[in-house]
Design brief:
The protein is mainly alpha-helical. The protein has two domains: 25-92; 98-177. The protein has eight helices and no strands. The longest helix is centred in the middle third of the chain and has 57 residues, at 70-126.
C-alpha cells in the first residue's frame, strides 16, 4: 500500500514536470497575433507606450524559452497578449479623439483662412504694405495646410492632419492683427 501511494505521488510529480517541460508556443503565438492586431489598429502610433511594453514582454518570453524557463515564458507571453489587447483599445480611443481634433482644426483653419482672404482682398486694394504681404503668405500657408490635412484625413492619417493644422489659425490671426486698422467708412448722408 505505501508503495502504491509513493508511485502515485511520483506519477503526479512527473506529470506536473511534463506540463512545464514544453514551451508555451500557443501563448507565444497568441501574443504575437495580439501585437500584430494592435499594430493594425494603429497602436504603434496612438498607444506607443503600451504597444512597446507588449513587444518587450514578448521578447522577454522568447528569451525565457531560450533559457528553458517555461513558467516565466508563459507569464510574459500572457502579459504581452494582455498589453497588446489594451494597446489596441487605447489606440482606437486615441485615434477617434485625434480624428475629432483634426476635423475641428480643419474647420477652424478653413474658416479663418476665408476670413483672412476677405480682409486681404480689401487691404490689397488699399496698400501693399509688409503686413499685407505677411498676411498673403499666412493665407497661402493656411490653404496648403488645409489641402495637406484634407489628404491626410482621407488616408486616415489623423496625427499628420493634426500636425499640419496646429498653429495655423494662430498664425492667421497674428498676421491679421499686424494689419493697420481699416479706416471707418463715412456714413452716407441723405439729402432732405
Amino acid at each position: 500500500m505505501p508503495r502504491l501511494v509513493v508511485s502515485c505521488l511520483l506519477a503526479c510529480l512527473v506529470a506536473a514536470a511534463a506540463g512545464c517541460a514544453d514551451p508555451p508556443n500557443k501563448e507565444l503565438h497568441q501574443a504575437q497575433g495580439a501585437i500584430d492586431a494592435a499594430r493594425a489598429a494603429g497602436a504603434d502610433s496612438y498607444a506607443t507606450e503600451e504597444f512597446t511594453a507588449a513587444g518587450e514582454a514578448l521578447a522577454r518570453a522568447e528569451a525565457a524559452v531560450g533559457q528553458r524557463d517555461y513558467r516565466l515564458a508563459l507569464s510574459q507571453a500572457l502579459d504581452s497578449r494582455e498589453r497588446a489587447q489594451n494597446a489596441a483599445k487605447i489606440a482606437a480611443s486615441q485615434k477617434a479623439a485625434v480624428r475629432s481634433e483634426a476635423e475641428r482644426l480643419l474647420a477652424e483653419v478653413t474658416s479663418a483662412a476665408v476670413m483672412a482672404s476677405t480682409r486681404l482682398t480689401a487691404e490689397t486694394a488699399r496698400t501693399r504694405s509688409p503686413a499685407v504681404v505677411a498676411l498673403q503668405s499666412a493665407v497661402q500657408h493656411a490653404r496648403t495646410a488645409v489641402d495637406d490635412a484634407g489628404k491626410a484625413l482621407a488616408t486616415e492619417d489623423y496625427l499628420e492632419a493634426r500636425r499640419r493644422l496646429k498653429g495655423v489659425r494662430d498664425t492667421l490671426a497674428a498676421a491679421q492683427q499686424a494689419l493697420p486698422a481699416t479706416p471707418a467708412a463715412r456714413p452716407v448722408r441723405r439729402r432732405r
